[in-house]
Amino acid sequence: MGTTQIRTVTELTDLVDGVRAAVAAHVDWPATARLVAEHLRRHLPSPDVLTAEQRLGSPDGYRSHTLYVEPDGSFSVIAVVWRPGQITRIHDHLTWCVFGVIQGVEHEELYDADLNLVGRNDNHAGDVSGFAPPGDIHRVHNTAGTTAISIHIYGTDVTRIGSSVRRYYN
Q: Where on this protein does the 3'-(S-cysteinyl)-tyrosine (Cys-Tyr) crosslink form (predicted)?
């Protein structure tokens, strides 16, 4: 483990402990997402959880950085860096998800099962939200003129399965 990873894990100790306790409550996914969101609100890290190079992002698309994976695979903490104009495809998730913006603004569009647009949110630094399937179809877009960074916590080991996305939609 490199020094950056050691520094990151140390900075995330309280958050990871809180998420571990929320998962150990063994409640349904919506309740787990609410519990995890409470811990993320209390322990939302600063952008310095990433190196200066990681905070730059990539012109090729948004970039994910794995910050922590629980050894039993029950959750992962990921940082996502979005340059202006970068956008996800419309998608849903395999499990519950919680995210908090630590820099910039992320625009989120919410869809129903028929892919009708049912809501829009601008999530600013400090905003935290969570959700669980079904009803988690969305798209995220950096509509601002500066780089945005968010922390995402997923109820699975994303390094093992490759992504938290269940399906993409056209």
A: 97-154
The answer to whether 138 is a known ligand-binding residue is: yes
Q: Sheet containing 76-82: give its strands across.
A: 63-69, 76-82, 148-154, 97-103, 128-131
pTM comes to 0.90
Which CATH number goes with the domain that contains 96?
A: 2.60.120.10
Rounded CA gap, 28 and 30, in Å? 6
Tell me how far apart the terminal alpha carbons of the chain are, to the nearest angstrom.
39
**Total structural domains within the chain:** 1
Tens digit of each residue's pLDDT (9 = 90 or more) over 54-102: 999 999 999 999 999 999 999 999 999 999 999 999 999 989 999 999 9
Residue 93 annotated as binding?
Answer: yes
In angstroms and rounded to an integer, the radius of gyration of the C-alpha atoms of the chain is: 15
Output the CA torsion sign for 95, 30, 28, 15. Answer: positive
124 marked as part of a ligand binding site: no
